[in-house]
Write a structure and sequence with these properties.
Layout lengths: L1 E7 L4 H14 L2 E5 L9 H6 L8 E5 L2 H7 L5 E4 L15 E6 L8 H6 L4 E2 L12 H15 L13 H5 L3
Parallel strand pairs: 1-2, 1-5, 2-3, 4-5, 4-6
Helix pairs in contact: 1-5
């Protein structure tokens, strides 16, 4: 199972740091399409990702054409508030690429129009603009993992019965 999270020109270091942490714990690769709205040396970026950066598979691309040239056959899904199809209506392949746009503008419309059949959305109330980028990435990544039975993930949340014996 290979999940690739693609951030198109992310602007907020804390979001990218949180996404990096999600990628680390979920076993996803992180792809950053430049320009970024911050330096990768940014303290906020490192802080939000905590000590998980060394566990990440991170790839950088100088621009959008470079990304598409390097991955011409990628099974890409584009997350946008403008899509008619809901993200849970898709059967994601074993190797899945999930693209998210920058916080202020999303994925450029020329990219969306060129891939309209692979655009999906996360449902939300119609009067609101969008979810936080890091939350959207987590929702999407875990849907792909759920569809594939959470491969390679152990149940590390073992409850100890004595914790519950004293509960009122």
């Amino acid at each position: 199972m290979n999940i690739h999270i693609v951030l198109h020109e992310p602007e907020i270091p804390q979001n990218t740091g949180n996404i990096a942490r999600t990628c680390a714990v979920a076993g996803c690769s992180l792809h950053l399409i430049h320009p970024l709205g911050f330096s990768t040396d940014d303290k906020s970026l490192r802080h939000a990702g905590l000590d998980y950066w060394h566990l990440l598979d991170v790839h950088h691309y100088k621009d959008t054409p470079s990304f598409f040239a390097e991955h011409p056959d990628a099974a890409l899904f584009f997350f946008t508030t403008k899509a008619p199809r809901v993200y849970t209506e898709v059967s994601y392949p074993e190797e899945t690429w999930l693209m998210f746009g920058k916080e202020s503008a999303g994925i450029p419309e020329d990219i969306l129009f060129g891939h309209a059949d692979h655009c999906v959305r996360i449902p939300m109330l119609p009067t609101l603009r969008s979810l936080n980028l890091s939350n959207a990435v987590a929702i999407a990544a875990y849907e792909v993992l759920r569809q594939h039975g959470f491969p390679d993930m152990q149940n590390t949340g073992q409850l100890r019965t004595h914790c519950w014996e004293d509960a009122p």
